[in-house]
Amino acid sequence: MKTEAQHSAERDTGTLSTLNDDGSRKWLKPRVSPGRYLIKRRLFAWFLILIFTALPYITINSKPAVLLDILHREFTFFGMTFLPTDTLLLALFIVSVFITVFLMTALLGRVWCGWACPQTVYMEFVYRPIERFFTGVPGRKKNKLQAGPFGGVLKNVSYLLVSLFLAHTFLAYFVGIDSLIHWVGRSPLDHPTSFIVILFVTGMILFDFGIFREQMCIVACPYGRFQSVMLDRNSLIISYDPNRGEPRGRMRRAKKGSPTPVDLTVSAPPKEPELGDCIDCAMCVTTCPTGIDIRDGLQLECIGCAQCIDACDTIMDKVGRDRGLIRYSTQEAIDGKPTHLIRPRVIIYPLLLTLVLTLFVVVLVGKKPIDVTILREQGLPYVSNDDGSMITNNIKIKLVNRTPASTTFAVRIAGDPGASFVGTENGSLLIEADPREPVTQGVAIVTPREAFAAGKGMLEITFEIGNENLSVEQTYRLIGPRGSVSK
Ligand code: SF4
Ligand code: SF4
Predict the structure, then answer these.
(1) Ligand 2 test: best mutation among 111, 307, 309, most atoms within 8 Å of CB?
(2) Is 376 helix (H, G, I), strand (E, B) or coil?
(3) Rounded Cα gap, residues 223 and 227, in angstroms
C-alpha cells in the first residue's frame, strides 16, 4: 500500500497510474467494492448487455431493428433506412450526437464512461468477474481452483468464448442475424471473408479486454482527452472532499500483530482531533479500475465509475463517520460555493440540439420516394450536328428507388422546351430500379440551337420522373452555344 509521501511524489512527477517506476506496465487488479452504486451499475450494465445481444434478433417491418449494411451502403435504424444519398441526414445525425455528448458531459460529467460505455460495461461486469472467479479476488484467500494451475487456463478459455460470442453479435449488426446463422452452420471455406472478419474482431476484443484494458480509457479514447474542455466547475464529477478529509491520517493501531493497520472492527473509535475524516486506508485507490487516487483531485483518468464512493462509504460506515467523503458533487460545491445549473453552455447546447434535430426531421419528412441525380457525361459539354442547327447534351440519370418494390420509372421532359430524348419511344425514357439499388442510365438530349439563344448558352428544363403512383420533378440546365445559328 502506498504512503501519502509516495502519492505526493507521483503527483509531483506526473507518473501514470499504470506505470511502474522503471516504465513497465503496472497490471491493475482492482478490488470489488460492494455498495449502492455497484448494484445500480451492475443492473444497468446487464440491461445494456441484454439490449446489445437481443437487438439483432428484433425486426421492424420485416427488417432488422438495426442493420449497418456497409456492403450495400444501407443503414437501418428502427424502421428507417438511410442510403448513401442521405448524406445530409447522416451529417445532421452525427452533429446531434456530438452536441448531446457535449451537453451530457457539461451536466453529468463522465457518466457515459462510468455507466454505459461498452469498454466499462464489458470490462467491469464481464471480463473482470471472470478473472476474479478463476484467479481470485484481491485481498481474499484463493480457493483451490484459483490457486492451482488451471485457474488461468480456464480464465483464458472463458475470455475466448465470450469474445467469440461478442464478435458474432457485433457482426450481426452488419450482416443481419439470418446471414450470420447461415454462416455459422457452414464451413468457413464457404465464407472466408466473414470468417476472417470474425477472427479479427475476436482477436481485437481479446486484446482489448485481456491486455489493453484500462489503457483504452487512459491513453486511447478521444472522449477522455476532451474532458477538460467539456467539463466546467459546475459539472457533476466524482470528488473527494479535502475540506472534510484533510489532513488525512491513520487511526489508532489495532492490537499488536493485527494484519490490518486500522482496527475497522471498532465501532466509532475516538478520532484524533487534528485529523480529517480520511483515515488514509487507500481503499479508494485499490478499488479504482484506472489505478488513480481520487484524493489528488479531478483527473483525466477518472472514468466516473463510483467504485471509490462505495469503497469509502463502507470505510466511513465502519469507522462511524458520515458517508460522502468521496461523492458525486461539483468542483464549486466541493469548494463551498453554490453550483449553477443554468450557465451558457447548458443553454446553448440544447438550443443547438433542437435546431439540428428540427432540421433532421424536416429533411426526413421531405424525403422523396425516389432520389434523382442528374450528371453531365464526361467529355465535351455539348455536340453540334454538321450544320450547327441541333445541339446534343449527353447526361447520366442516377435513380435510387426508396420504395420497397421493384419499379419501372418513366422519365419525361416537362412542358415543351424543344428538347427531347434521343432514341426513346413516346418521348419517355424508362428506367427499371430495384429497391434501394442505385441505377444509372446514360441518355442523349437533342435540342434546336434556337432554344439556347435567349438563355446565354443555357436552357433550363424540368424532368418528371415517376410511375402511376408517384412523381418527382428535377430541373437541369442544358448547355449550348450562345446566339442564334448563322445561315
Ligand atoms: S477510502 Fe476514504 S478514507 Fe480511505 S483513503 Fe480513500 S478517501 Fe480516505
Ligand atoms: S477515481 Fe473513483 S470514480 Fe474515478 S475511476 Fe477511480 S474509482 Fe472510478
Answers:
(1) 307
(2) strand
(3) 7
pLDDT in tens, 414-466: 988 789 999 887 788 999 998 888 899 999 999 998 888 776 788 999 999 99
- pTM exceeds 0.70, yes or no: yes
Per-residue pLDDT of 47-63, as tens digits, reads 999 999 999 999 988 88
- Which value, to the nearest 10 degrees, does the dihedral of the CA atoms of residues 12, 16, 21, 22 take? -140
Q: Cell numbers of 63, please? A: 427488417
Which mutation among 308, 312, 326, 329 tests ligand 2's pocket best, with the greatest number of atoms within 8 A of CB?
308
Q: What share of the chain is helix, strand, coil (3-state, %, to 5)?
A: 45, 20, 40
For residue 276, CA distances in Å to 243, 251, 328, 355, 398 come to 8, 10, 19, 49, 73
Q: Cβ(306) to ligand 2 under 6 A?
A: yes
What own/partner pairs with CB < 8 Å and gap ≥ 24 does 34-39 have?
34/310, 34/314, 35/309, 35/310, 35/311, 35/313, 35/314, 36/310, 36/313, 37/306, 37/307, 37/309, 37/310, 38/306, 38/307, 38/310
Residue ranges and CATH numbers for the domains of the chain are 31-85+117-230 (no CATH), 237-334 (no CATH), 370-479 (2.60.40.10)
Residues in the chain: 487
336, amino acid identity: G
Please tell me if the CB atom of residue 431 comes closer than 6 angstroms to any atom of ligand 1: no
